[in-house]
Amino acid sequence: MFEILKASPLFIGLRAEEINFLINNSSHQIKQFSNKEVLAYAGERVEKAMIVLDGKLQGEMVDFAGNSLKIEEIEPPQMVAAAFLYGPQSVFPVNLSAISDGKMLIIFKNDFTKLLSADQRVLNNYLNIVSGKAQFLSRKITFLSFKTIKEKIAYYLLQNLKTGNQIIAMNQSQKGLAEMLGVARPSLARTISEMEADQLIKWERNHVDIVDLKSLRATLGR
Amino acid sequence: MFEILKASPLFIGLRAEEINFLINNSSHQIKQFSNKEVLAYAGERVEKAMIVLDGKLQGEMVDFAGNSLKIEEIEPPQMVAAAFLYGPQSVFPVNLSAISDGKMLIIFKNDFTKLLSADQRVLNNYLNIVSGKAQFLSRKITFLSFKTIKEKIAYYLLQNLKTGNQIIAMNQSQKGLAEMLGVARPSLARTISEMEADQLIKWERNHVDIVDLKSLRATLGR
DNA sequence: GCAAAAGTGTAACATGTGTGACACTCTTAT
DNA sequence: ATAAGAGTGTCACACATGTTACACTTTTGC
Description:
Oligomer: homodimer
CATH architecture of the largest domain in chain A: Sandwich
Radius of gyration of chain A: 22 Å
Distance between the termini of chain A: 53 Å
Number of strands of chain A: 11
Strand content of chain A: 15-25%
């Protein structure tokens, strides 16, 4: 087990013996789960830290009509719902169910808090995990908050533009990009055409030429 | 100072003497700042925990064209960039500048980490702050990912509907709600009218009646 | 090399949302 | 009590985007 945990973001930088020592000094459980088992429902309180040791879980968002929506997979040795253990509304944002047999390490919140203060490296790691989530979400919002497709494209290009360069390698199809930006594929193609007509960019199969950097930047100036 | 800090989310549940003790046992500084002073630029590394003691700061997002965009105000005794102290990309997401004279408490990251492990209540508080941010952002994304205003309204209402009830108290103006949902105010009003015409809801000044819960849910079934 | 699959350019059309405007109502402060 | 301010209902209009469709090109697998 401790070999698996060594690879976990929570225990980066610790030796297996150290992890062993820490875990064995906090009360914990190993829970077996079987395929299709529902481990937690959305809205339920998060009261324990969970780390997948073996097998695979998935988080499925369930809408009010009862359909399941997005899916996020959690594999060993990831933590489950790391950013939802603490906080004013510490409830599961999704249904948590197993998509294979497996087992997980469970530490109750109180004990987990003690564990965090027992080792500064673990504390640091956990803070990195949670902060990382917040930062990821923050960046995602930046994207979503651009209204027009033109803005999204401009932002995407400028993000991926290395200074001094004026060519951006594209390792993604327009279809994929459209999905990532959350827009319809033909709409993306249309907007690209417009931007080419406006002499802002030149979109080739595998790379994009920035023709008029200044105007491209101005696209984002509201 | 310790009286101010007592009200800070970071030190909830601690007595002034305890805060005094903790702070004086970690190395720290008090920094005076003056109006219009820029305290940090977006992209700069976050290396210290900062708590505003007096005066007011603002975070301004700067776009690629050099214009400043959104503004977030930070007042005593709030922490600055709490979710950005740790994490893989711990850099300021915004420019940080003063909009009045004032002063702040500064604790360098290393010392702050020690402070967190020195007192479990402070650790818990900080985890609550950061997790709270992540949860707030997560909810915001859920909202932004609904495409139509009708969906957003339905989601909002169903979220705030207590089981068994069919009336939702509104503690927010339509204007405020429109802002929160990221839509134009008249568009929100129009959509509400439509939903009323469809006999889904009845929107009064201070509360909303759910007329047809089933159909309201169906709005979200994609 | 060839066929199938995937990706791309483009068009016509429907539709949801933002904008700006205005009258009206409710709340707040003096 | 009254005036000023904030919030609300509604309209006409412009416009960006999604949808659906089809021809064409490129890539992939055999």
